[in-house]
Write a structure and sequence with these properties.
Helices cover 24% and strands 26% of the residues. The protein is α+β, with helices and mostly antiparallel strands and 238 residues long. The protein has a single domain, classed as archaeoglobus fulgidus dsm 4304 fold, CATH 3.30.2170.10. Helix 2 packs across helix 3.
């Protein structure tokens, strides 16, 4: 299992530059029936990390199972190096899944990154699995203004290279930023994500992963692999 606690930023940059050469932006998925979302929650001022992956049916977006792991990391929070802080714990949650989903969505960047190595690309290369990044904030690239209505899009461009899309997921709300991580094309990243956009700003896979890891962090869910959502009301009152 990977551990980056002793890795310097210089070394991390070298690792990213090495891994970027392994990224494929050619779609390698025949049929999607399950899709996963991954996210992390932290306790402030501690090295504890709460990692979670949810698995949903596709395109129905029904929660099937989820995997929760408590881990520790001392790698600092540095913009552009999120993978070194979060990927090791997410890999542990991934290993707990008895059956791997067809596609993995991560809360963060894919190739919309200065070295084309956001957390979704980092995770995808290490698992050799198709991934997409869905970020709440822009890290890299530029896009033209998009319409105010749901499903409006604008290409994210850097140095004449099309890296992803800004996507309006609700009328009049800030867009999310979708880009391929690994084994998915730019266009298919958008196509595969559209069924995941329901009534919330955040698409269902990463929204539900965020919900689960926060319930886990406050002690309302237990570590391990769980089949179906047997406690649907736990998040009420937050």
């Amino acid at each position: 299992m990977y551990n980056y606690d002793s890795t310097s930023i210089t070394e991390a940059t070298e690792i990213q530059n090495y891994l970027r050469n392994k990224v494929s932006l050619v779609t390698d998925i025949e049929n999607i029936t399950t899709i996963a979302g991954g996210d992390i929650s932290h306790n402030k001022d501690t090295d504890v990390v709460y990692a979670g992956i949810v698995v949903l049916s596709y395109p129905e977006m029904k929660l099937l199972s989820y995997s929760l792991v408590l881990a520790k990391t001392t790698f600092p929070y540095v913009p552009g190096y999120l993978g070194f802080r979060e990927v090791p714990a997410l890999l542990q949650a991934w290993e707990q899944l008895p059956e791997k989903p067809d596609l993995m969505i991560l809360d963060g960047q894919g190739v919309t990154h200065p070295r084309r190595m956001g957390i979704a690309s980092h995770f995808g290369v290490l698992t050799n699995h198709p991934t997409i990044g869905c970020a709440k904030n822009m890290l890299y690239g530029n896009y033209s203004p998009l319409g105010l209505e749901k499903f409006s899009t604008s290409p994210i461009i850097s140095q004449n290279e099309h890296l992803g899309y800004a996507v309006r997921t609700k009328d009049n709300v800030k867009p999310v930023y979708i880009s391929p991580g690994h084994k998915v094309s730019v266009e298919d990243s958008l196509k595969f994500m559209k069924p995941c956009i329901l009534k919330h700003r955040i698409p269902e896979p990463t929204r539900l992963a965020h919900e689960k890891v926060n319930l886990f962090r406050v002690g309302k869910l237990k570590e391990g692999f769980h089949i179906t959502d047997i406690q649907p009301d736990l998040f009420s009152g937050f």
